[in-house]
Every structure is written in C-alpha cells, then in structure tokens.
Amino acid sequence: QVQLVESGGGSVRTGGSLTLSCVVSEHTYRSWSMAWFRQAPGKEREGVAFIRKDGDTNYADSVKGRFTISQNNAKPTAYLQMNSLKPEGTATYYCAFGDGGVEKWGDTDEYHYWGPGTQVTVTS
Hints:
Shape: globular
Radius of gyration: 13 Å
Largest sheet: 7 strands, mixed
Order of helices and strands: EEEEEEEEEEE
Strand content: over 45%
Number of helices: 0
C-alpha cells in the first residue's frame, strides 16, 4: 500500500527558512509525479510546487524564486526548500503522489495518494 510520510514542518519567523520532506513507500509506478500543496484555514487547497521523475518542475507564482522543489528518485522522495517565508505561507502542507501522466499539476484530482500533512507557521 502506498504511503507518504512528510516531515520538516514547524514554526519560523518571517524571512526564515524550512525544508519539507516527503518519502513514498510501496509504489509500483514506473514514472511518477510529486507535488506539494498547502491549505490555510478557510481556504481551498492550492498547489505550491511540482516535480516529475524526469525532473520537470512547476511552481505557483506566489512562491517562484523563494521555494525550490527537488527529489531523490532512489526511493521517491520530494523536498521543498522554502526561503523568505511570509505569514501568508502559514498552512498545512500536503505531499501528493501520482503517475507520470499528470497534466494539470495544481489540480488535486490528478493525484492518487496524499500525505497526512505537516503544519508550517510563519510568525511576523
């Protein structure tokens, strides 16, 4: 059974940095896609960053230049390096895992598996 385990959340002051990790286990995909989403209280879940096994990446406009997604293909692991964090970045961050055919990376329906989420709090 595919399981996603996230780590690295926490509390940081404005301008600080955090790195999130997501490890995937027991999958059978030859090619895959991984993404980070976030959801703040009262808001919809939104795509933050995306990476495909072949290295293709995408970012939400709001995080371009500050966040970097990377991966380790040996055991699918996605990292999200978050720099220059802002208070509006406060949310629960979720890792998502799907096959290599993801087309609309910011669409939650594209992903088959989700992690339980990790909280990121940015204080001013």
